[in-house]
Design a protein that fits this description.
This protein has 174 residues and is mainly alpha-helical. It folds into two domains: 122 residues, no CATH class; 34 residues, no CATH class. The chain is built from six helices and two strands.
Length: 174
């Protein structure tokens, strides 16, 4: 697996793989009557404000779901099952969508588990690197200088002219 932890890229690639798998199934099951279903596939990854994916939307011609279930044009699922069992109807389910999608959801679940584990380990590594061997937080030279300035200011070197005059009158330096 790649060191890529960008969830948007992973989701985008996964969605394209799902569509590619559906198209392969459509060809294999000989569903491609007019090429309309084949040419209708699209996907859109919806992200939140910080770029994390929230939802994936797939779009294709609606009749594709009916082909998947073996129903349509006035034939319900139960009627299709009865007619096929009786040998009276050539219509039968061509499962190009449901099983493939469920399988790909399991793949996505595994991918996201890996990506979130990688992100978590990266956060832990970054936090561990900010401590020395004794467990003390490592302070950068800039932040150490800022702390030193704050402590010297709180020790009596006030920059407010009124406070300076007050401190001088009380004999606190200057």
């Amino acid at each position: 697996m790649s060191d890529n932890i960008n969830l948007s890229l992973t989701i985008e690639a996964w969605a394209e793989i799902v569509i590619k798998t559906w198209l392969e199934k459509i060809i294999r099951l000989n569903i491609n009557y007019s090429h309309a279903l084949y040419n209708s596939f699209a996907h859109h990854v919806i992200t939140n404000a910080n770029g994390d994916p929230e939802r994936i939307e797939f779009a294709f011609l609606y009749y594709g779901k009916f082909v998947d279930m073996g129903v349509g044009n006035g034939v319900s699922k139960s009627e299709a099952t009865e007619l096929v069992a009786a040998g009276m109807n050539g219509r039968h389910a061509k499962p190009w969508y449901s099983k493939t999608f469920y399988h790909q959801l399991q793949v996505l679940r595994e991918l996201l588990a890996e990506k979130y584990a990688m992100k978590a380990s990266q956060v832990i590594m970054i936090n561990l690197e900010s401590f020395d061997a004794e467990g003390e937080k490592i302070i950068s030279s800039k932040s150490a200088q800022q702390r030193e300035n704050k402590s010297s200011q709180s020790a009596g070197s006030n920059t407010n002219p009124t406070a300076k005059a007050y401190d001088k009158a009380r004999g606190r330096g200057y």
